From TrEMBL:
Catalytic activity, EC: 6.1.1.10
Keywords: Aminoacyl-tRNA synthetase, ATP-binding, Ligase, Nucleotide-binding, Protein biosynthesis
CDD domains with a match to the protein in the record: Anticodon_Ia_Met (cd07957), MetRS_core (cd00814)
Species of origin: Dipteronia sinensis
Pfam families the UniProt entry points to: Anticodon_3 (PF19303), tRNA-synt_1g (PF09334)
Family under the similarity heading: Belongs to the class-I aminoacyl-tRNA synthetase family.
Keyword Cell cycle attached: no
Name of the featured protein: methionine--tRNA ligase
One cellular component (GO) term of this entry: chloroplast stroma
Record domain Methionyl-tRNA synthetase anticodon-binding: where: 445-582
GO molecular function, one term: methionine-tRNA ligase activity
Catalytic activity annotation: tRNA(Met) + L-methionine + ATP = L-methionyl-tRNA(Met) + AMP + diphosphate
The keyword Cell membrane is annotated on this UniProt entry: no
């Protein structure tokens, strides 16, 4: 790009007098050679850009046709995926499936972040090249997502050539806007966070509060992004659109960070070779966050398209929802919006920071060495059990803890008993007494029956909870539909009515239609969370896979089952999980595995950086 570099000592002096440009907390920060570029190089209006992220009236028709673009973080490939990564992706998949039920065009983006110091170190420790290492670990994510029934639309790798081209173009736009300059920097650096830290936020012995490892004193000559320039714009954005960051207590954290004064941050590394070269200085590579965040945009470009920033933007940006862990909230709710403002692009509509999964009261993570192995969970219990437990038992946004005993108890109670057993015994009675055939339309059978009203209210509750990202409450509402069905069948006791014959037998046959309609509605309403289980319900109700794949939220309306429909032969929907026992060597083994499937080979294990 053709920007002119101006070296102005007066400008440097005035810039240093700005109190917002604070220094690293333990040593002196030296800035020099502030670069300036024509401010009118691009014609975008910042006021117009900032306004687009706020809630707007009168645009419902346009917004209804926009794609729903949902992203997970791009996961760092220093080691294979852990349960924390799986949790984010399971939640994102449930949200994406729900939006598809509403009839939205969904673009669900996930992927892997593959550059940086930690990646090079992990590759060296495993005796492979960075490229080989990234191929292995990235594939391990794809394999796990398949095993967990994750239906993503785009998988972006930051080593993809199209991504590199878009990162360089984005960098050049920000540079041309006068927001990148070169400076000396000295401070405490957390390798695992890939971030300089303020001393006041560190623990004893300069330990990172997230990774509990000492930060390293480091001095570099890097390029910086003028984050402080956008402090007022960010404050105004959050004031106009308080829903930009959710849950609300995460918004309070972000506003506190901004009010405390934003500091410019380094966007290049002179000591890291494994990365995208800085366009105007090939001796440096672009900082991993300035690289990885652009994956949300580069993922939108099609393989056949020329890797062009504007083409990618026009293919679905802005994102409807960034779903992240709370530990990377600052990057997504402060750094990323400012970067987009500088480049002249619309901000994402919402950033949701969920809590941590804990084990023994500690955050689980690759760097801490206390991860819960998701591949083992899926192999032992199946994807539906894993998906259901973490979405039902962890209130979305808050921290949640895992214990195997609680996992088994919850899954057995809700999936095996409340839902699975209700379906099995109802279909069994229908086979025995009605030749597996419905005697009447479910709409007619429900006339004057309170069960229908109860189910309709719970369906509405589930809808509202899904829309509000209250996934735990949505699961609870659907399970309550199952509880209502169980209460009804226990109260009516159709097995006894069939024995009486005559009108009593006819009433019992209608009761079975009502319960199977309840099961049909559950199959639709819970399908974002447990897609395979819900397909099993639909299949036993006599529907084809194509019919199941084409259901929408409208199919939760009462009245789908018709008289004369023939149900499939009943079979166990969800095998009850037995509590595991310890063998003599201390290894826990399940007495009766819930899922029998061939165990896939694990991804190559690499050393922690």
């Amino acid at each position: 790009m053709a920007g002119r570099v101006n070296y102005c000592s007066i400008q440097n002096s005035l810039w240093l007098l700005n109190p917002l440009h604070s220094k690293a907390s333990i040593t002196t920060t030296h800035f020099r050679n502030r670069l300036t570029f024509p401010q009118n190089l691009f014609s975008y209006s910042k006021r117009a850009i900032l306004c687009t992220c706020s809630a707007r009236n009168g645009e419902s028709n346009r917004e209804s046709t926009d794609p729903f673009v949902l992203t997970t973080p791009l996961y760092y490939v220093n080691a294979p995926p852990h349960m924390g990564s799986a949790y984010t992706t399971i939640a994102a998949d449930a949200i994406a499936r729900f939006q598809r039920l509403l009839g939205k065009k969904v673009i669900f983006i996930t992927g892997t972040d593959e550059h940086g110091e930690k990646i090079a170190a992990a590759a060296a420790a495993s005796g492979s090249s960075p490229s080989e290492h990234c191929d292995v670990i990235s594939q391990s994510y794809k394999t796990l997502w398949k095993d967990l029934d994750i239906a993503y639309d785009k998988f972006i790798r930051t080593t993809d050539p199209k991504h590199e081209a878009i990162v360089k173009e984005f960098y050049s736009r920000v540079l041309a806007n006068g927001d990148i300059y070169k400076a000396d920097y000295e401070g405490l650096y957390c390798v695992n966070c890939e971030e300089y830290k303020d001393e006041k936020e560190l623990l004893e012995n300069h330990c990172c509060p997230v990774h509990l490892r000492p930060c390293l004193a480091r001095k570099e000559d890097n390029y910086f992004f003028a984050l402080s320039k956008y402090q007022k714009s960010l404050e105004e954005t959050l004031t106009r659109n308080p829903d930009f960051v959710q849950p609300s207590y995460r918004l309070n954290e972000v506003q506190s960070w901004i009010r405390s004064g934003l500091r410019d941050f380094s966007i290049s590394r002179a000591s890291v070779d494994w990365g995208i070269p800085v366009p105007n200085d090939t001796k440096q590579t672009i900082y991993v966050w300035f690289d990885a965040l652009l994956g949300y945009i580069s993922a939108l470009s099609e393989e056949k398209d020329q890797s062009n920033l504007q083409t990618a933007i026009s293919s679905g940006w802005p994102a409807s929802l960034h779903l992240i862990g709370k530990d990377i909230l600052r990057f997504h709710a402060v750094y990323w919006p400012a970067m987009l403002m500088s480049a002249g692009f619309t901000l994402p509509k919402k950033v949701f920071g969920h809590g941590f999964l804990t084990k023994d009261g500690m955050k689980m993570g690759k760097s801490l060495g206390n991860t819960l192995e998701p591949n083992e969970l899926v192999h032992n219990f199946g994807p539906d059990a894993v998906r259901y437990f973490f979405l039902k038992e962890v209130e979305f946004g808050n921290d949640g803890d895992y214990s195997e005993e609680r996992f088994i108890n919850i899954v057995n109670a809700h999936l095996a008993n409340t839902i699975g057993n209700l379906l099995s015994r109802t279909l069994g009675l229908l086979k025995k007494n009605c030749q597996s055939t419905l005697v009447v339309d479910s709409a007619i059978a429900a006339e004057g029956i309170a069960l229908k009203d109860t189910v309709e209210k719970l369906v509405e509750n589930a809808l509202v909870h899904y829309e509000n990202l209250s996934l735990s409450s949505a699961c609870e509402a659907v399970v309550e539909i199952g509880n209502a069905g169980n209460s009804y069948i226990d109260e009516r006791a159709p097995w006894s009515l069939f024995k009486q014959g005559g009108d009593a037998s006819g009433a019992a046959a209608k009761d079975l239609v009502l319960i199977l309609e309840v099961m049909r509605i559950i199959a639709v309403a819970l399908s974002p969370v447990t897609p395979n289980l819900c397909w099993g319900i639909y299949e036993q109700l006599g529907y084809s896979k194509d019919q199941f794949n084409n259901v929408t939220w409208n199919d939760t309306k009462w009245g789908g089952l018709k008289g004369g429909q023939v149900m499939a032969q009943p079979k166990p929907l969800f095998a009850r999980i037995e509590q595991r026992t310890e063998s003599e060597d201390g290894v826990k083994q399940a007495v009766k595995p819930a899922v029998k499937k061939e165990k896939k080979p694990k991804a190559q294990v690499v050393a922690e950086a």
